[in-house]
């Protein structure tokens, strides 16, 4: 406890600030009564969420709201991750692995259907992006993609443990996703158990 503030006090303060910015019940009730998206923007302007829509032109679209909300979430998460030290940094890394699995599966599916993987990169979730994801776009067939995933991604241990290149076909894609998720969740659970008792619970 003596060194808690030195290691984690700043991030706890940031996290408490994020929590304090979550919409209250009264604010949510006001949002539920909005009749137009402009009313929604007006109601959000008095909250911590007001700034992320202020520069958007009218008419406001639901896709814009979703995109800007996701950008805000990702920016806050990346800020926390950049300032975290171990074991919190590892815990936050594990949170991103589920999104990474979804992104890699999206690229595998696109490769199987011979779609342009560069277009698919735009559809990937930002929390699931990693430094070498662009290397996956170089692959022209499933075997190359599998070999790249094994070497270049943080998900390599899950692929090595669970799958082979022969498994990567259209019929198995959901089985592959679920197998990877299972391995990832078991690993994440084991990591949480290795931490202090509060985190393990």
TrEMBL record:
A cellular component annotation (GO) from this entry: proton-transporting V-type ATPase, V0 domain
Listed InterPro entries: ATPase_csu/dsu_sf, ATPase_V0-cplx_csu/dsu, ATPase_V0-cplx_dsu, V-type_ATPase_csu/dsu_dom_3
Single GO term (MF): proton-transporting ATPase activity, rotational mechanism
Keyword Ion transport: yes
Domain of life: Eukaryota
UniProt KW RNA-binding keyword: no
Alphabetically ordered keywords of this record: Hydrogen ion transport, Ion transport, Transport
SUPFAM superfamilies reported for this sequence: V-type ATP synthase subunit C
Family named by the database record: Belongs to the V-ATPase V0D/AC39 subunit family.
Protein role: Subunit of the V0 complex of vacuolar(H+)-ATPase (V-ATPase), a multisubunit enzyme composed of a peripheral complex (V1) that hydrolyzes ATP and a membrane integral complex (V0) that translocates protons. V-ATPase is responsible for acidifying and maintaining the pH of intracellular compartments. This subunit is a non-integral membrane component of the membrane pore domain and is required for proper assembly of the V0 sector. Might be involved in the regulated assembly of V1 subunits onto the membrane sector or alternatively may prevent the passage of protons through V0 pores.
Protein name: V-type proton ATPase subunit D
Organism, as annotated: Physocladia obscura
